[in-house]
């Protein structure tokens, strides 16, 4: 048989143990925060009927979705995000008590061009509430971001918030045709990635000079949150949708203040639009101040109409999504990831004369909640077994020479970085567990 | 826009919070056992190049694999099990220290006919060692099964073990053509699902009468483990491969005894073959005595040649796979699943007059590690808020009437099953946390 070249698809990755443990650590930290806010876990399938997913995200998604015919000629697609499946769940199980609060952490797939920090398979970690139109829910989302980031030991970040109703108000205020609004929002969303000149030029491709001027005035509105809110109230004095969005922002900010969120990190930013079609109210992004090149690591918003695609009547909903891979890559670069050491604690050696003694010792150590390996590398002298323990950074070895064990002697060896510098203690069977525990301290 | 019918593909499932929590509990219990044996987590992608997966499992798999052309016209397939990707990893990263011990829990996909307890998307939870030909590794696998089952509170089960070398010895002993061996193994594997008559008839379709007789004599060899081993040594007195398999079984059993595994559950069973092509040594299955209809819930074996498909030289390996969905369904039926109650502990009510007070209280409770929800259902009287808490079995509510809060009075209410029978205590702000904690006890 010909050899098969072991390789991965571009944009797909293996996570070897060290990295996998660090990722698990990150996910568990955020999960604890989500749980502390009263959210419950949910899981949806990887494959969905394509019509469930299509038409919810915008044009780009159609091109990027992994879509195929299954064995029964059904048109199926791999999960593109966690929000649309969540909306499907809300529609499918009307018996769910509302407001329904869930979190989900799972991979999603997009056939995007792979580039630094961008993958075709990547994890999202979402939290959403369905059945709440309250700005309290909006502020809980922003609070969740802030608390999650802190739980990961990240101090230097901004959460930028805006509201689609404010942007819709802008469309009205600048007298822009509604059909052009998506294009305008997409341009606004890219404002930081392109030059001011290009931004203006791109606007002029779609809009008149006076319309463009109003957009420019709007996105340039900067300052502290209260100043921006005051300015918006001025602009939207006769514009009910814009005013509604402005008041929602104001309430959200007030609740965040009451929750003692550090208000220096909360920035109303009128240039935030978010690319996805389904947003209807508040939207937010999270930028790492020391690594802005990673883009937003924690994003989301309100989507009051998405569930309505499935049941005909709207159910208000709001959510936030952590880009696990992006944040992980950024934390790696910023050296913010802790060294996770929850692997094997003890290696029990094995010698040809008495392997069952090793099995017995391992069993007793495990019964005492010590993570224990038996050396499985086959017939071997002591040297290679200690080398194995060193390579895997196993902190303690129990050495089981047959002649020693026969005399009730066990050698407990503390492994240090340099071979030969190891500290070791001989003990009898009764003292073994205590000796190991002491060495592990 | 037309409404889209919210629905799932047949054989695919959503896990709503209660079930998801129970599944997470199961996975965490088993993960703790795997970790206690010194295994580390690994993750591989859902999509692989098809040639990585094809040709490793047997004929059936080709038909059942979700396989398609991606946007770049690459021939890709969804993960069919976790073992072949593991073998690919071992081949791809020669720098991994051997023996390499990993666990992985993840969904796999097979376009099988959905039936009771059988899904097209289901979870496997695997543990494998690569780079060990030792029977110590074989016995560790069986020990892992036994310990995992105990960690789930399951007492009544059998682990049936056999060895492919013993079966290969049988082929030689019965003078059967090697090309027919796969068919014979597949028949033996199905022995419990068909009648004795049909089994014999099916054998006679492939084999001569004298060959069939030998197979029947062999699979009928029953008794305690030592008796079976004695009988095999007799049969294989001149058959080196059969003898090698027999000795491996004997060593494995001895190690299990040394590890104080309950030997009443370990049954050498010569009718166990396991369907997959890649097994080469020990194989095992786990049957629930009170729910044998679920089939094997924990299975695996040794596959010393699979990694060789990728690198040309063989790397010995052995593993075991927990059928998460199957075991979960069986535990559900046997009422062995614990009620998992790690949801919200406190609901803080919200009233129109003073929502920021609710935000403040929630924040303080969360800071004291109490899982806390703010009521997000919008403007509401107390009744619907308490009903919400009752429906979700939230044990404690903190009631924040504006006029009370103004006088530093908070009502802490213990929710019981019957509305109206609730116990409640009034406290001031300073006593709030203690009062809540006492009620939660």
Which helices and strands occur, and which strands form pairs?
The structure is a homodimer of 441-residue chains.
Chain A: H1 17-36, E1 40-41, E2 47-49, H2 50-53, H3 59-64, E3 67-69, E4 75-78, H4 83-92, E5 100-109, E6 121-130, H5 135-151, E7 157-163, H6 164-173, H7 181-189, H8 196-206, H9 209-219, H10 225-235, H11 240-258, E8 266-268, E9 282-288, E10 298-302, H12 308-311, E11 317-323, H13 324-333, E12 346-348, H14 355-367, E13 372-374, H15 382-391, E14 396-399, H16 402-406, E15 410-414, E16 423-427, H17 432-440
Parallel strand pairs in A: 1-5, 7-8, 12-13, 12-14
Antiparallel strand pairs in A: 2-4, 3-4, 5-6, 6-11, 7-9, 9-10, 10-11, 14-15, 15-16
Helix pairs in contact in A: 1-5, 5-11, 6-11, 7-8, 10-11
Can you walk me through this structure?
The structure is a homodimer of 441-residue chains. Chain A has 441 residues and is an alpha+beta fold. Chain A has two domains: 17-333, BirA Bifunctional Protein, domain 2 (2-Layer Sandwich); 346-440, Anticodon-binding domain (Rossmann fold, 3-Layer(aba) Sandwich), CATH 3.40.50. Chain A is 41% helix and 18% strand. Chain A is built from 17 helices and 16 strands. In chain A, the strands form three sheets. Chain A has an eight-stranded mixed sheet with strand order 1-5-6-11-10-9-7-8. In chain A, helix 14 (355-367) links the parallel strand 12 and strand 13. In chain A, helix 1 (17-36) packs antiparallel against helix 5. The two termini of chain A are 51 Å apart. The mean pLDDT of chain A is 93. Chains A and B meet through helix 1, strand 1, strand 2, helix 4 and strand 5 of A and helix 1, strand 1, strand 2, helix 4 and strand 5 of B.
